[in-house]
Write a structure and sequence with these properties.
The chain is of the alpha/beta class and 766 residues long. The chain has 28 helices and 21 strands. The strands form 6 sheets. The protein has a 7-stranded parallel β-sheet. Helix 7 packs parallel to helix 8, helix 12 packs across helix 14 and helix 24 runs parallel beside helix 25. The radius of gyration is 27 Å and the shape is globular. Bound molecules: glutamine and zinc ion.
Length: 766
């Protein structure tokens, strides 16, 4: 007899460890400080401790805990488990070195490509499909997670990326003739092998994640994807022996996929009904009521897996009871991978702000409290319901959150705010800057040396005072300025030594944001970030960058470019509010930054760059939601710059080169100069732009800063020529692909010297 689905569950949990134990184990193993056995022991302990903790927090039923652990990436794990990537497996696990070679590359082979997982800041490894790919079950890793947990007294639920999502995320290797989804049937048969083997090992439930079904996947209609999913799951659910199948649809709402999955015969369906998702698609609850039969167990993902706010438990309970279903469980909308472990690890957050937050552990408690309340009423979990109610009320009333002044300022914005004078007038006015032909510049940051990092850390820990810190930074600026002068760069930057991170730095200097001590979330592999928390109306208590930029200008006769991070990127890399629209927060940040731009301009800085590398990242997963997003995001960027004089030159930097559907938006940013990544695509990106009404300055990167390789002068000359074939010389800027922060000085010096030499060679020739 297989067990029924647990009443309370979550669909995934962070895996880096509450004290980043996994990160430390990974990095020690990679550096050769520990061997494979020690690594295995460290992550074994982490997994078992996690299961114990989750049980303590209330996930006590069999199969309530997902086995969502991964050494590096869950997409890679699934691809290996079904042979989409061929693998050698050792007795019970993947071959570790081969696994990390795929993820990180070796001297001989480059790593798998990495890209963002849906609209989150997690990066997955992109599996490559070839005609010769032979799918095959490799369930050893899944089996070992199950048996290890069982030995410690836990029945955990294996998790795989579902077949439809796996294929839509895969890319085809050059020369491949079939498109990935053509191979769904074949792949489904191998999924069936994998889960049948799990069933034979005594596993009652497996989880298959299908976020692709809540997105618009280029090249397919929603119906086509749904039909594919319906077929795949009918095969899996219709087979004679298999565990019960739980399919999740996180990060948004199902359209055609809802009836396809409901009628496929799967045993449980996990849906995202977080308040944020319901706000975007208010009809979802009704569609669930109409389309999910009682025979399908509904797993209601009501606790938001991606935000950091304490849930409104009473409202959540009302939604759950409103569903009116017998076969109902309580869960998270997405994996909790996207939030830090626990608020209890934070000691420096303002106490009121801390009381409004729920990280992963607190969210598990919320799931448990709702589950109990569903049968026993809210009084049975009065403490949790009271906490939720208090958090909601104190937050709504807090003077820290609401500023009448900020609200008045955004409310007074007019529809035509945000537009500068026409470009022709600006171009004329900017000729006073006397920018030379084919001007050279960099994207902003210079390598962050150990001394710079130490000075910042010492200052944060009060080991050095403000004056000592300031002189350390100024000394660094002096070095970076004279280096740029020696190299012959035309537009000088200060190098950003004072910034730990381009978003956190601004969050620390704006009111309305809090930063955490231990709020780490996984970005990819062992890489973690600590996103700032935007909790209130945003304002700028004092100028932020002005002093550094004006100091820089005193050190050189050349043009100096000020450097800011734009509102969309600040939002994209922070935890955002759930009590006001993103567009409102964007306007608030934009107005604060516009004061900064005005101050820079008044201080004589004639060029200001406003970076928006995340503009494309926040693009909604559904096409129908995209225009509204692009409207507010573009407007917020323009608001930053709308008050500057025509003669002040505004640059922007975007970290990618595939403009696709956002090309109109990029054009609408109306920056005077736009720098983009182009070195790796060898200027192909300019084809998109050349066809376009993109008549302003453009700086396609000629130096790929993601690699330590120093590009040669002929190579750079060739790229500049390739750019000149597509862009008129008077519009072209010569710059690297991105900031130089992660590189070393020796390669940066050599590469920039070559960049200037290549530019000079091109100029001398004409
Ligand atoms: N100005 C930033 C830097 O140079 C831009 C970084 C980015 O685009 N991600 O580091
Ligand atoms: Zn960049």
């Amino acid at each position: 007899m297989t067990s029924s689905f647990p009443q309370a569950t979550i669909t995934g949990y962070p895996r880096i460890g509450p004290r980043r134990e996994q990160k430390k184990a990974l990095e020690s193993y990679w550096a050769g400080r520990i061997d494979a056995d020690e690594f295995a022991q460290a992550v074994h302990t982490l997994r078992i401790d996690t299961y114990h903790r989750l049980r303590e927090l209330g996930l006590t039923e069999d199969y309530a805990i997902p086995a969502s652990y991964s050494h590096y990436d869950h997409v890679l794990d699934t691809a290996l488990s079904v042979g989409l990537i061929p693998s050698a497996t050792t007795g019970t696990d993947f071959d570790l070195d081969e696994y990390f070679a795929l993820a990180r590359g070796t001297a001989q082979r480059s790593p798998l490509e990495m890209t963002k997982w849906f609209d989150t800041n997690y990066h997955y490894l992109v599996p490559e499909l070839e005609d010769s790919t032979h799918f095959k079950a490799h369930p050893q890793h899944l089996l070992s997670l199950v048996s290890e947990a069982r030995a410690a007294g836990h029945l955990v639920r294996p998790v795989l990326v579902g077949p439809v999502t796996l294929l839509t995320l895969a890319k085809t290797a050059p020369g491949t003739t079939t498109s990935p989804l053509d191979r769904l049937e074949e792949l489904t048969a191998v999924y069936l092998d994998v889960i049948s083997i799990l069933a034979a090992a005594g596993v009652d439930w497996v989880q298959l994640d299908e976020p692709a079904l809540v997105t618009d996947v280029p090249g397919f209609t929603d119906e086509q994807l749904a039909e594919a999913a319906g077929r795949a799951y009918a095969t899996l659910a219709g087979a004679s022996t298999h565990p019960k199948i739980f399919v999740t649809a996180p990060y948004g709402t199902l359209r055609s996929g809802l009836s396809a999955l409901s009628s496929s015969g799967i045993d449980a369906l996990g849906v995202d009904i977080s308040a944020a998702t319901r706000a975007i698609d208010p009809g979802y609850l009704d569609r669930l009521a109409a389309e999910v039969p009682e025979s399908t167990h509904l797993v209601a993902g009501i606790i938001d897996g991606r935000n950091v706010w304490a849930a409104d438990l009473q409202e959540s309970l009302d939604v759950l009871t409103g569903l009116g279903r017998e076969a109902l469980s309580v869960s998270t909308s997405t994996s909790l991978l996207h939030v830090p472990y626990t608020v209890a690890n934070e000691s420096a957050l303002p106490v009121d702000v801390a009381s409004w937050l729920s990280f992963a552990e607190e969210k598990v408690t919320e799931v448990e409290a709702l589950t109990t309340a569903l049968t026993a009423g809210p009084d049975a979990r009065a403490e949790a319901f009271n906490r939720s109610d208090r958090a909601r009320r104190t937050r709504a009333e807090s003077a820290r959150v609401h500023s009448a002044e900020v609200a008045a300022r955004t409310a007074s914005l007019a529809d035509d705010d945000g537009f500068r004078t026409d470009y022709a007038t600006r171009r004329q006015a900017q000729s006073a800057l006397e920018i030379p032909s084919l001007p050279t510049t960099t994207i902003g940051s210079f390598p962050q040396t150990a001394e710079v990092r130490r000075a910042r850390a010492d200052h944060r820990a009060s080991r050095i005072d403000d004056a000592a810190y300031e002189s350390a930074m100024k000394a660094e600026i002096d070095r970076v300025v004279s280096l740029q002068e020696d190299l012959g760069l035309d537009v000088i930057v200060h190098g950003e030594p004072e910034r730990n991170d381009m978003v956190q730095y601004f969050a620390e200097n704006l009111d309305g944001f809090a930063t955490t001590d231990n709020g780490w979330v996984q970005s990819y592999g062992s890489r973690c970030t600590r996103p700032p928390i935007l909790f209130g109306d945003v304002s700028r208590p004092a100028p932020i960058t002005v002093e550094w930029s004006t100091y820089t200008a005193t050190r050189t006769q050349r043009l100096v470019k000020g450097m800011l991070t734009g509102p969309v990127t600040i939002l994209a890399w922070s935890f955002v509010r759930d009590d006001v629209a993103l567009a409102e927060s964007a306007d608030q940040i934009a107005l604060a930054l516009s004061d900064e731009v005005a101050d820079l301009e008044a201080a004589g800085i004639g060029i200001v760059q406003v970076d928006e590398p995340a503009l494309r990242e926040l693009l909604p997963l559904r096409e129908t939601d995209r225009q509204a997003y692009l409207d507010w995001s573009v407007r917020s960027f323009r608001l930053v710059n709308s008050r500057v004089a025509p003669g002040t030159q505004i640059h922007t930097h975007l970290c990618y080169s595939e403009f696709g559907e956002i090309i109109d938006a990029i054009n609408a940013l109306d920056a005077d100069v736009t720098s983009i990544e182009a070195a790796r695509s060898r200027m192909e990106v300019l084809d998109d732009i050349a066809d376009f009404d993109f008549v302003r300055g453009i700086g396609p990167g000629v130096y790929d800063i993601h690699s330590p390789r120093v590009p040669s002068v002929p190579e750079l000359t060739e790229l500049i020529d390739a750019a000149l074939a597509k862009v008129p010389a008077e519009r072209l800027w010569i710059n690297p692909d991105c900031g130089l922060k992660t590189r070393g000085y020796s390669e940066v010096r050599a590469s920039l010297a070559n960049l200037v030499a290549a530019r000079d060679a091109v100029l001398a020739r004409d």
